[in-house]
Design goal:
Length: 262
């Protein structure tokens, strides 16, 4: 099985923590040069040192805030003009705040749409010409199992994640002939800061202990535990590899069996 990503470059979004950072590490372990994308330069520099120690390459970073799509566009275009483009794009952005869809304000949907779908599209648009030229491209979107089965209390997130999944499926039709694949990884409950935030929020709203909320979530998972970020990253790394060349336009749940539909 060819998992070698030597001579490949990967742009990884949200790569200073959680699943994004774990994905950057896995891609570096397979030999890829990694370009980290996040908004905090101090944490970017620290993460870059970790990645450099893994693959001993001239990895780089881009400072960008996904709440400002135009700023992201300019930053990415500047980086590409100075350092070149990438063969692999990992789209990963923190999810919208939890809450009932009936309580959501219109602006919440617009904000989430920009943070996720619009920013994903800006990045894909910037990298696709190079991917087509190289006849190798991987666009991997880290979304949520909610695209298969909406999650209670995540109204805005459920809506926007589904939009991203359908964007990805549509794009996969159009770029496959160029050796480019577009796939979605759907993490289940994963031990990250976002999960801690969701649990704390539920605890406050329901006036129940964090331990009780956590246990209720664990009871829904056949594996009986939360995922480690590295387990989600392993799926990302495989889909980025040459071995996954004929896997295109699919949703890959990595959820310990929680999703009840196929």
């Amino acid at each position: 099985m060819n998992l070698d990503l030597s001579n490949k470059t990967a742009f990884v979004c949200g790569s200073t923590q959680g699943i994004g950072k774990a994905a950057a590490i896995e891609l570096a372990l397979l030999g890829a040069k990694v370009v980290l994308i996040a908004r905090n330069e101090t944490v970017l520099k620290s993460t870059l040192e970790e990645i450099n120690a893994i693959n001993h390459q001239k990895n780089e970073y881009i400072i960008a805030d996904f709440s400002e799509p135009e700023q992201l566009k300019l930053a990415v275009e500047k980086h590409i003009s100075q350092h070149g483009a990438a063969h692999i794009l990992v789209n990963n952005t923190g999810g919208p705040p939890a809450g009932k869809i009936s309580d959501a304000k219109p602006q919440e949907f617009l904000t989430a749409f920009n943070n996720h779908l619009i920013c994903n599209h800006i990045l894909a648009e910037a990298l696709l010409p190079f991917m087509k030229q190289e006849k190798f491209g991987r666009i991997i979107n880290i979304i949520s199992t909610s695209v298969k089965q909406p999650l209670k209390g995540l109204g805005v997130s459920n809506t926007i994640r589904a939009a991203v999944a359908n964007w990805a499926k549509t794009l996969s039709f159009e770029v496959a002939a160029h050796g480019i694949t577009v796939n979605n990884v759907l993490p289940g409950a994963t031990s990250t800061a976002r999960l801690q935030g969701i649990i704390s929020n539920k605890s406050l709203k329901m006036n129940e202990s964090i331990d009780k909320i956590s246990q209720e979530m664990l009871d829904e998972i056949p594996a009986g535990r939360f995922a480690a970020a590295e387990e989600i990253a392993a799926a990302v790394a495989f889909l980025a590899s040459p071995a996954a060349a004929y896997i295109n336009g699919i949703n890959v749940p990595v959820d310990g069996g929680r999703t009840t539909c196929l």
